[in-house]
Amino acid sequence: MTDDCNMYVQTVDSNVNFSTAVTDVIGALQNILRSQATIADLGNSTATIPSRNHALFTLKGRSLNAILTERQQQLDTLKTVMESIQNIHGQLVEEQDKVIESINLHERLGSSALWRLPTEILSHIFVYCLPEDEYLSPASRLAPILLTRICRRWREVVVGMPRLWCSLRLEVQHDDWQQRAFCYEAWLKRTLGQPLSLALHFYALQELSIVGHTAAIAQPISQLPSTLTSLKFPGMWWFDLELLASFAPVWAQLTEVEIYVDKQDAFIRLLQLCPNLSSLKTGIVVSQVQPLEPFTHPTLESLHVCGRAWIFGNPLSGVFNTLSLPNLRVLDSSSLENLNFGAVAITTEEQRAEYVALMPFLKVVVDPDLV
């Protein structure tokens, strides 16, 4: 079927060339017919032969040599036009044979049982047309994209089958990123929201921001190239020790991280996993008392505490008392609007004053029944 489509395209292109050639030939013929020159009628011409010199032989005031030269030019032109017509005739015969072959092919296809198959059976066949690769790369000569180029009905069936589009190998290069992005967008739309198996191949990725269900992509993220230096999880997805471990060893190469951690020990563990970290934006949930070992992070320069810090029993300052940051230059807590002490939290005014001194923009909220 693809060959037939190619043959049709070639026929259309050839017809354009033939039209141009025929137009040229007709134009040449019209020029000849419009010529002001007339062929001399020797029987009715008045000829004078003053001497044997052929060059002096004249017909109606014109020399014979001039007439012969003109006639020879006309003859040459006619021969050229006739040869062109013969060539065009031969090519037209060939194109006629191709058109007849195409008609016969379409008639055979129209009578074939393949075109009368129900959509359900056709869909089942299309699944077996997919490459055997675990992850599919968009390619015009491979299914499923190839199947969309056969005919309108096949395209409608293929585009409406999410199963054919739920596997993708995504490769990112700087030279053709926009073209690939357009292709990937069209591919992903055809998944119709179904679960997607995705393989990521980045050649010079430096920054990555992930929104969504983080645990589902931990394995491919852990295999990102060593060029990655910035990793952000802007959604409120809380990392515990297990989830942090699932992203190893990518942490070791990062210099900038945005992340929310579930407990104090997860916060300390994050710093241990990121020895090259220089900038950290985080939110911390302090839900229970945890013994913490002292830890020094020598490279962290900027710490941004955001969101809400929830404290139930153990002051947040315990984290900072355990942690030593000799290279810290920026401590930003302007986004930390509230510090809530739960019912079991016992804090004195002096302890609360320590929080305010540490983070001037902090609003401390205390249950008045506990004061």
Which terms would index this structure?
371 residues, alpha/beta, disordered N terminus
Gyration radius from CA atoms, angstroms: 42 Å
User: Tell me, what's the shape?
Assistant: elongated
Class per helix and strand makeup: alpha/beta
What summary fits the major beta sheet? 10 strands, parallel
Contiguous runs where pLDDT drops below 50 for at least 5 residues: 1-14, 40-56, 309-315, 340-345
Ends distance = 83 Å
Order of helices and strands: HEEEHHHEHEEHEEHEHEEEEHEEEHE
Please state the average pLDDT score.
Answer: 75
Helix content: 25-40%
Q: Gist?
A:
By secondary structure, the protein is of the alpha/beta class.
Written description of the protein model:
This protein is an alpha/beta fold. Helix content is 39%, strand content 18%. The protein has helices at 2-33, 64-110, 119-127, 152-159, 177-189, 218-222, 241-246, 264-273, 317-322, 349-358; strands at residues 47-48, 58-59, 62-63, 167-172, 197-202, 207-209, 230-232, 238-239, 256-261, 279-286, 295-296, 302-305, 307-311, 323-324, 330-332, 336-341, 363-365. Strands 6, 7, 8, 9, 10, 12, 13, 15, 16 and 17 form a ten-stranded parallel beta sheet that branches. β16, α10 (349-358) and β17 (363-365) form a beta-alpha-beta unit. α1 packs antiparallel against α2.
Topology:
Elements: H1 2-33, E1 47-48, E2 58-59, E3 62-63, H2 64-110, H3 119-127, H4 152-159, E4 167-172, H5 177-189, E5 197-202, E6 207-209, H6 218-222, E7 230-232, E8 238-239, H7 241-246, E9 256-261, H8 264-273, E10 279-286, E11 295-296, E12 302-305, E13 307-311, H9 317-322, E14 323-324, E15 330-332, E16 336-341, H10 349-358, E17 363-365
Helix pairs in contact: 1-2
